[in-house]
């Protein structure tokens, strides 16, 4: 049985929902999530993407409010 790509919540987004809503590809999301593993956060041009990984399932979810905050904090020239 195939898992659904959507969740019934306005607070949380799956990677596919984030791609549809914000235009950030699933592959780019993966790369951005890896930023959290960098040693020197000061060396980063952008903060790591905020996400939650559900233990046991490995499922990735994004909190809509945290994504909005992250996008605003990443603005250039503001």
Question: Could you characterize what this model shows?
Answer:
The protein is an alpha+beta fold and 78 residues long. The chain is 35% helix and 10% strand. The protein is built from 3 helices and 3 strands, in the order βααββα. The protein has helices at 15-22, 26-34, 64-73; strands at 12-13, 52-53, 60-63. It has a 3-stranded antiparallel sheet. A hairpin with a 6-residue loop joins strand 2 and strand 3 (60-63).
Write the layout of secondary structure elements.
Elements (H helix, E strand, L loop, with lengths): L11 E2 L1 H8 L3 H9 L17 E2 L6 E4 H10 L5
Antiparallel strand pairs: 1-3, 2-3
Brief account:
The protein has 78 residues and is α+β, with helices and mostly antiparallel strands. It has three helices and three strands, in the order E-H-H-E-E-H.
């Amino acid at each position: 049985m195939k898992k659904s790509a959507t969740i019934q919540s306005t607070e949380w987004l799956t990677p596919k929902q984030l791609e549809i809503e914000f235009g950030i590809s699933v592959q780019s999301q993966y790369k951005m999530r890896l930023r959290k593993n960098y040693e020197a956060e000061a060396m980063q041009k952008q903060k790591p993407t905020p996400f939650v990984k559900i233990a046991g399932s490995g499922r990735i979810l994004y909190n809509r409010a945290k994504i909005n905050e992250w996008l605003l904090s990443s603005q250039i020239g503001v």
